[in-house]
Amino acid sequence: MSKVETRSKPFSIFTHRQKLGIVMAAATAAFFSPLTASVYLPALPAIAKEFGVSYSAINLTVTTYMIFQGITPMFVGAYADSAGRRPAYMFCFVVYMAANIGCALAPNYPALLVLRMLQSAGSSTTVALAQGVVSDIITSAERGRYVSYMSTPVLLGPSLGPVLGGTLAQYLGWRWIFWILTIMCGTLAVVFVVWMPETCRGIVGDGSVRPKHIAHRPLWWVGKDVLATRSSRKQQVQINGQDGEHSVTGPSPSGQQAVTKHKFKALHALMLLLRPNMAFLLLYSSLIFANFYCIMTSIPAQFTSIYHLTDLQTGLIYLPLGLGTIVGSQVAGRSLDWNFRRHCNLLGLPYERKRQQDLSSFPIERARLEVGVPALILGTCVVLVWGWVLHARTHLAVPCVMLFLAGLGLTGFSNVVSTLIVDMNPTAASAATASNNFTRCLVGAGASAAIQPMIDGVGSGWAFTILAGISMVASPLTLWTLLKKSMGWRKGREEKRKQRAEALEKTKRERAVQESEEKSF
Questions:
Q1: Is there a contact between 85 and 218 (Cβ–Cβ < 8 Å)?
Q2: What is the full DSSP assignment across 390-427?
Q3: Which Gene Ontology cellular component terms are annotated (predicted)?
Q4: How far is CA 396 from the centre of its chain?
Q5: What is the maximum span of the chain, computed from C-alpha positions, in angstroms?
Q6: Is 348 left (phi over 0), alpha (psi -120 to 50) or beta?
Q7: Which residues pair with 104 in a beta bridge?
Q8: Which superfamily does 16-204+267-503 belong to?
Q9: Using alpha carbons only, how large is the chain's radius of gyration in Å?
Q10: For residue 173, is it left (φ>0), alpha (ψ between -120 and 50) or beta?
Q11: For a 10 Å CB count at each end of the chain, is N or C smaller?
């Protein structure tokens, strides 16, 4: 029987309401990445006309955005795992707002192209940072529910973006898209500066360790410290007649959790792709989620041609997809927590919600993927039927229902994968999520570019049948490998890590003994 060890102390000192507030703040920041990618789409014809460039040329601003959306988080995410979440968030906000202002004032096409790259660099890492925040304060036992909270705004971005962008472009002009994004981000940045606490366990442990650097402390903490310092000095003057030294400290060292700091590894996200279990999971999930990109990409051209919708009406078509993502993420999140508890009961293990359990000998892959498989089957069936629905030119209500089911299935499976990735990499959640983002963007960019030529060549029915067929062929081998091999790979990697740590500790002891003997002579 597997043994799952638990820590004696609670995993985090934050209350349920505090954790919910922190996760929702991180989720709101993560919302900007998909929102910025899709809010821009309805304005492409107007921008191309104003700058006098072709539609193919203006599409490059979308392609370059996706490229940077995949690359940037790999470095900033790894930085956040070592240097803290707050500094990484501040960097993202500053870059993003500067890029939005530049896009709003862009005088020509080359300037817009470069600024869209910068805009992507500022917004894309927020998704990886949000997953890192969840990993910092949420245990595996209740991670599914909180990941669903975090994922809902992220998954709504592609649906709400076209509606917002189409409305702004039609009534205020396309430049106002970027001004509104600047205002929204600036408001959120103020909330983060004033309130958002540092959560990185390498900086604050379970939250009880008071960070030393001002970049890791919310503004209200800093103000509180200043007032406390002044009050203490006044008391010192009254008692001693002179200013005395005073420092405001957090909890006593005995009440703090030991902090294990992690070195900054710039290529850590890339190195994670070399792990066989991560490679199988990320490449397969990217292949599945590419179907989501293809459905979204096909909507404007297909619905304009078949149903003769306006730009604003086409944007509204994304709303059923958004509703499906909300339902799918919530159902998946609660199911993940339920299935984790079920496996604990089957193995005769204690179910610990407040304490992080050692998953090295726990079948976490099975506990997660058992929830993902039904969502995967639903999503694949929707992809198969979607193309033939468009081919048959059915009533508009039929594709709307299919979009809801696509959101329910494909994003439900996406939530399962996101949760499993964090479970497999608890100390490098941001870097691991960045790896997931990288493979998704890489495969998604290729799929998005290929879907229209496929539709033109073989028709929408066979184009999406091919996509569904690829998913069906890849599923058995990938799922079998993850269920049968992944836990063994994790245990082997953990044993090697312990051996390296023991060898390093032995070397340090031998060196200390040698130095002591040299001093005695």
A1: no
A2: HHHT--THHHHHHHHHHHHHHHHHHHHHHHHHHHH-TT
A3: plasma membrane
A4: 33
A5: 93
A6: left
A7: none
A8: MFS general substrate transporter like domains (1.20.1250.20)
A9: 25
A10: left
A11: C
What residue type is 185 in one-letter code? Answer: C
With beta carbons less than 8 A apart as the criterion, state whether 80 and 430 touch. Answer: yes
Q: CA-to-CA distance for 241 and 263, rounded, in angstroms?
A: 46
Amino acid at 286: S
Sequence-distant (≥ 6) Cβ neighbours of residue 440 within 8 angstroms: 70, 285, 286, 289, 290
Of residues 125 and 111, more confidence is placed in: 111
pLDDT recorded at residue 252? 39
Write the CA distances from 515 to 115, 377, 505, 507, integer angstroms: 56, 64, 15, 12
Percent of the chain residues past pLDDT 90, beyond the cut: 30
Of 407, 268, 423, the residue nearest 337 (C-alpha): 423
Number of other CB atoms surrounding residue 104 within 10 Å: 18
Q: pTM higher than 0.85, yes or no? A: no
Q: How many Å apart are CA 432 and CA 430, to the nearest integer?
A: 5
SS3 6: strand
Rounded to whole angstroms, the Cα distance separating 402 from 386 reads 7
Tokens representing 74 are 């790999």
Structure tokens belonging to residue 337: 């927590």
| Token reading at 168 | 């702004």
Q: What's the angle, vertex CA 177, arms to CA 176 and CA 178, rounded to 5?
A: 90
CA distances from 299 to 47, 162, 399, 448 (A): 20, 11, 10, 12
Residue 352, number of CB atoms within 10 A of its CB: 18
CA–CA separation, 382 and 411 (whole Å):
12
The tokens describing 320, both together, are 């059923």
| Structure-token pair, residue 268 | 């850590």
Where does 22-144 show beta strands of DSSP type E?
A: none
Question: Nearest-CA neighbor of 148 among 24, 32, 37?
Answer: 24
Task: Note the pLDDT of residue 370.
Answer: 92
| Six token digits for residue 78 | 């790894």
| Run of H or E including 357 | none
- What was the pLDDT predicted at 264? 54
| Calpha distance 321→338 (Å, rounded) | 26
d(CA 485, CA 482): 6
Q: For helices 109-123 and 85-104, give the axis angle rounded to 10 degrees.
A: 160
The tokens describing 159, both together, are 């649906």
- Per residue, what are the HEC states of 196-239? CCCCCHHHHCCCCCCCCCHHHCCHHHHHHHHHHHHHHHHHHHHH
CA geometry: angle at 280 spanning 1 and 410, to 5°? 95
Residue in 20, 26, 3, 35 with CA at minimum distance from that of residue 322: 35
Residue 224 pLDDT exceeds 70: no
Per the DSSP assignment, residues forming a β-bridge with 357 are 6
